[in-house]
Amino acid sequence: MPAGFISLLRVGVGRRYRAIGSNMKQQLKAILDDDRGVSPVIGVILMVAITVILAAVIGAFVLNLGGDLEQTPQAQLSVEAQDGSVVITHNGGDALNPDNLNIASPDSSPSVTDWGDGTDAFEVGEVTTVNGLSTGNEVTIQVIHTPSDSILVEGTVTVP
C-alpha cells in the first residue's frame, strides 16, 4: 500500500465513512464484532417459533387430533410343537378377545378353530391348536392383535 494511501470503509447505514490507517485490523475487527442489531431479531424469531409450536401441541390435545389409538394387550404367549401339532399357550397377562386375533405364517396358511375353551376370551392357562401347517417343515407363526396391528408372539417351530 502506498505511504499516503488512506482506505475508506463504509460503516453502518447512511453516508458515514471512517478513515482507516495503520490500525486497520483493529477497526475492521470492531466492525465485524458489532452485532447489536442481531440479538433482538433472533429473539423475536425464537419467541414466534415457540408460540406456534406450543399452539399446535395444545390444539392437537384439545381437538383430539391424535385419535383413539388401540392399546396393545399385554399377554405372554408361547408357540410350541407338541404331541404332533403346534400349540399356542397363554402364559400370563391380559385376557384376549379371539375376534381380535389373527394367526399368520409366511410359510403356510394356518388357522385356529377354537381359542382356549371356546368362550369369548383366550385367558391365562388356556391352549389352542394351530391347523393348516405342512408337516416336517420349519414354520414361523405370528399371533397378531388386529385392532392395534401388533405382533403378540412370533415363534419358529418344526411341525412334527
Question: Mind explaining what this structure looks like?
Answer:
This protein is α+β, with helices and mostly antiparallel strands and 160 residues long. The protein folds into 3 domains: 34 residues, no CATH class; 31 residues; 84 residues. Helices cover 21% and strands 31% of the residues. It has 2 helices and 8 strands. It has a 3-stranded antiparallel beta sheet with strand order 3-4-6, with no helix packed on it. Strands 5-7-8 form a 3-stranded antiparallel beta sheet, with no helix packed on it. The longest helix has 25 residues. The chain is elongated. The protein starts with 6 loop residues before the first strand and ends with a strand. The N terminus is likely disordered.
Based on the model shown, name its key terms.
160 residues; alpha+beta; 3 domains; three-stranded antiparallel β-sheet; 2 helices; 8 strands; elongated; disordered N terminus
Q: Strand-residue fraction?
A: 25-35%
Average pLDDT confidence is 78
Order of helices and strands: EEHHEEEEEE
Number of alpha- plus pi-helical segments: 2
Topology:
Elements lengths: L6 E4 L6 E4 L3 H9 L5 H25 L12 E8 L2 E9 L7 E4 L22 E4 L7 E8 L4 E9 L2
Antiparallel strand pairs: 1-2, 3-4, 4-6, 5-7, 7-8
